[in-house]
Write a structure and sequence with these properties.
The structure holds 2 protein chains of 2 kinds. By secondary structure, chain A is mostly beta strands. Chain A contains no helices and 11 strands. In chain B, strand 7 (64-70) and strand 8 form a beta hairpin. The N and C termini of chain B lie far apart (32 Å). The chains are: A mainly beta, B mainly beta.
Amino acid sequence: GENVEQHPSTLSVQEGDSAVIKCTYSDSASNYFPWYKQELGKRPQLIIDIRSNVGEKKDQRIAVTLNKTAKHFSLHITETQPEDSAVYFCAASIFVGGADGLTFGKGTHLIIQP
Amino acid sequence: ETGVTQTPRHLVMGMTNKKSLKCEQHLGHNAMYWYKQSAKKPLELMFVYNFKEQTENNSVPSRFSPECPNSSHLFLHLHTLQPEDSALYLCASSQEAGAYEQYFGPGTRLTVT
C-alpha cells in the first residue's frame, strides 16, 4: 500500500515569511495529491490539490509543486499570516480506477510567530 | 443541516459496552470514510465505502464494525474496545472514492475507560 512521509512535524516561521512543507510517497501509481488544513478543534479542510499531469499549481498565497520522478511534493505558503497557524496534512491517492481512501502524512504543525 | 454531520460529538464508554457512531452526509456523495485521529497516528484511514460497497478495510480490529445502509449514512459499531481506542473518529464523504475532495464531519471524541 501507499506510504506518505511528511516533514517537518513542526514548523515555526515569522509572520510575513514563507513556509515550505515536504512530502514523499511510495506508490508510483499515485496521481492525486491534496493538502488539508486543520485548525485547532476543527475538521480538516482541503486547501489545494494537484494531479500528476501538472508540476505546479497556485492559488493566491498557496502553491503546490510535484516531482513525479522523485516521488515528492511540497506545499508553499508565502506572506504567512497568523490565520495560517494550523496543522497541515498532505495525502496521496490513485485517481483513475482508485477505489480507496487517501493515505495521509502525519501532519505539520505550522506556527506563525507575530 | 448541510454538509457532513456526526453523532454523538462526545462518547465515554466502558470496555464492555456496545455503542454506535453515526455519520450522515447531505452532499449527494457516493463515497464515505471512517478515520481515526489520535496524537500518535493522525488521520488513520479505517474504512472506505464506495456506492455502499466496502472497498477498503485498513487492517482494523474486528471490535470496530462499519455499516453503510445507503450512500448518505455510515455507522461505526463499537464493542469491547480498549483504552488505546480512545481518539477522535472522523467521518468524511466525497463524490466518489479516490481522487475527489473529501468533506469531513466534526468528529466524535471517544474515551474508553
